[in-house]
Amino acid sequence: MQSPSVGPDPRTRPIAVFDSGVGGLTVLHELLVRLPREDFLYLGDTARFPYGERSRAELERFAAEIAEELLRRRAKLLVVACNSATSAAMPSLVARMRQTTLGIDVLGVVTPEALQAVAATRSGRIGLLATPTTVASGAYERAIAAVDPHVTLHAVACPTLASIIQDGRQFDERAVATVRAACEPLHVAGVDTVILGCTHYPLIGHMLQRMLGPDVTLVTSGAALARQVEHALGTRNLSRTGDHEQGDYRFLCTGDVDAFRELGTRFLQMPMTAVEHVQLEAVEAVA
């Protein structure tokens, strides 16, 4: 178990964000906007993308390996910007981080979206579009029931949608057919709010809104999660202050660096800095 070395001021350490690929850059975008003074370190596990049909055991191990790498780079907070990893590996990852010297906080995308969706729904019928792993985990059902047990969740698994979007084909005929098929059961269920349960999906938000109708509220994780990160930093006295007006952001990926940079610019909607290739070390997840 690695622990970050304690420097002269822990507030100067970066916030670490990870995802299976580049989808989590939609979350990083919101973090950069809301917390401009902070430094960020983003890791995309593109060599093992997609996570959407991985087993819980695999995702717990992947998350543990990524967390160890980010701790070695002195992260002060860990953001899991991947719905599949959050849904499957969060308890194991939280337990692992509690064993570190500094007790690093871990925040994921499920709870902020659940809170938003319950607040937004008028009918009590909420839809979820997500990967098979996320749907099968039941994480959103549990999160929503904890807020309001009278709300009903209608979940639709989308096995190929994240890959279509990451490949840059989100507006071709296959993508349109995939999105239309996913939206149909939500129409039948009469939902008035839909959670986009994958960080890739905001890139097709306009297409989803057109197919679901203008009266359906789409819920994404970025802005709400950024507020939660801001609160966590303030509570732990880890917010970067002083004359540091604009932080840095850096990128790591486990796959092809050039492909990550090309795709990442589209997802981040900001300039991409250098991307470093990283080889993750095998570790065991915490039971």
In short:
With 287 residues, the protein is of the alpha/beta class.
What does this structure look like?
The protein has 287 residues and is α/β, with parallel strands linked by helices. It has 2 domains: 10-108 and 223-277, Rossmann fold, CATH 3.40.50.1860; 111-220, Rossmann fold, CATH 3.40.50.1860. The protein contains 11 helices and 10 strands. A 6-stranded parallel β-sheet has the order 4-3-1-2-9-10, with helices on both faces. Helix 2 (56-72) crosses helix 3 and helix 8 crosses helix 9 (205-212). The longest helix has 17 residues, at 56-72. It is globular. The model has no long low-confidence stretch (mean pLDDT 92).
Order of helices and strands: EHEHEHEHEHHEHHEHEHEHE
Architecture (CATH level 2) name of the largest domain: 3-Layer(aba) Sandwich
The counted number of beta strands is 10
User: Biggest sheet: strands side by side, in what order?
Assistant: 4-3-1-2-9-10
Radius of gyration from CA coordinates: 18 Å
